Structure formats: structure tokens, C-alpha cells
Q: What sequence folds into this?
């Protein structure tokens, strides 16, 4: 199997650091980082038919329907000339089974599945402290990476906002949805012998060292 046709799947609850670690892995290894959440938010911002459909689910902290997510991922697989770091898909067992179908159809291979493990308490603390610039989309965290001037963006001085899905009550609902629908995916990949677990607590550098460790096993 050519490396260009490999997929690294990232699993874990919201706020576990999948994006931070996945982007770094992709940059250092020449892979393409693909976050389905970012693609969906872009569609919402542009008010596309897909975006309007997805927004009703995202605002409630619910998962977007499988057929919508599958279409987005398959389009990326069809076009990409690089190996993929896939963040945000699959989140349900039917999605995992659908990904297997798409992998076979387009000649890809699931290289590994990494599960980032973090407690509910730390997830709520991390996500409720997150702020985003509505102008340039820069992301901050009031705990770990605060802006220099109160809650103004360092780049464009726009007042930062808290996304609706970063509010504590929505975070807890997202965690409940995650446990109900994504834990079967973890069991699925564990049975396939593809699952690797990483303790996501601590500084990003510490977590990345753990990621490199499990990927070299």
C-alpha cells in the first residue's frame, strides 16, 4: 500500500486535543489534516444547503446525519493525493462501516486509529475557556493560550466570542452524545486491532510525545 493512500483516524471526546495533535502530525509527516467539523462550520458560515441542514444539529450539540458526513469525507478521499489525518469521522458505528466501504472503493487503507483519552471534568474546563475571533477565526483558550489584551484578538483586535457549542451545558450534552454513539466505534476498531490509546491530559508537547510513542510501536 502506498503511503499516499493511508488514513490515520483520530477518535476522542470534544476538547481532547485531536485537532492540535493531528495538525502537528500532518505537518511533520507531509500528510493532509482533514477536520470534518471545520468543513461543516465553513458550510454553515456560507449558508449552503448542506450548511443550513447541518446547523440545526450542531446548534443542539447533536451529530450531523451520516449521509452528510459520508459525502464530505468521500469527496476528500476521491480528490486527495496525500495520506489523510481524519479528525471528526467516523463518530458512529454506521459511519465506521461506511468508511470501510469507501476505503475499499477508492483503494485506501486505515493505517491506525488513535483514541485520545481525557476525563469529562477536564474537557468541560478546556472547552468552556475556548474563545474564537469572529473576524479572522483565530482560536484562544483563557486557561492555556489567552489573548494578550483581555478578550480581544491579538491579530485584528476584534472582541472574541464563545461558540454556542463551547458553553458548559452544551459541552455536557455533546459528551453524552459522544459516549452513546462513539464508544461502539472504539470497540469496533479495537476488535480490528487498529486502536492505539493516548493519554490526552497535560501540555500539548507531552501529549504529542505520547502520540509519537504509540505510532512507533
A:
Amino acid at each position: 500500500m502506498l503511503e499516499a493512500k493511508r488514513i490515520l483516524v483520530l477518535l476522542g471526546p470534544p476538547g481532547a486535543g485531536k485537532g492540535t495533535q493531528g495538525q502537528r502530525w500532518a505537518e511533520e509527516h507531509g500528510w493532509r489534516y482533514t477536520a470534518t467539523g471545520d468543513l461543516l462550520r465553513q458550510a454553515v458560515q456560507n449558508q449552503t444547503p448542506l450548511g443550513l441542514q447541518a446547523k440545526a444539529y450542531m446548534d443542539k450539540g447533536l451529530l450531523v446525519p451520516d449521509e452528510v458526513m459520508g459525502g464530505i469525507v468521500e469527496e476528500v478521499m476521491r480528490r486527495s493525493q496525500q495520506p489523510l489525518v481524519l479528525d471528526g469521522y467516523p463518530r458512529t458505528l454506521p459511519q465506521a462501516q461506511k468508511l470501510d466501504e469507501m476505503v475499499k472503493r477508492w483503494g485506501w487503507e486505515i493505517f491506525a486509529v488513535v483514541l485520545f483519552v481525557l476525563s469529562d471534568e477536564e474537557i468541560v474546563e478546556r472547552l468552556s475557556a475556548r474563545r474564537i475571533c469572529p473576524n479572522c477565526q483565530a482560536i484562544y483558550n483563557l486557561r492555556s493560550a489567552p489573548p494578550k489584551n483581555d478578550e480581544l484578538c491579538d491579530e485584528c483586535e476584534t472582541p472574541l466570542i464563545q461558540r454556542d457549542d463551547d458553553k458548559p451545558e452544551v459541552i455536557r450534552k455533546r459528551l453524552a452524545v459522544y459516549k452513546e454513539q462513539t464508544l461502539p466505534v472504539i470497540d469496533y476498531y479495537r476488535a480490528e486491532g487498529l486502536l492505539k490509546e493516548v493519554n490526552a491530559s497535560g501540555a500539548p508537547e507531552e501529549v504529542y510525545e505520547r502520540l509519537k510513542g504509540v505510532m512507533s510501536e
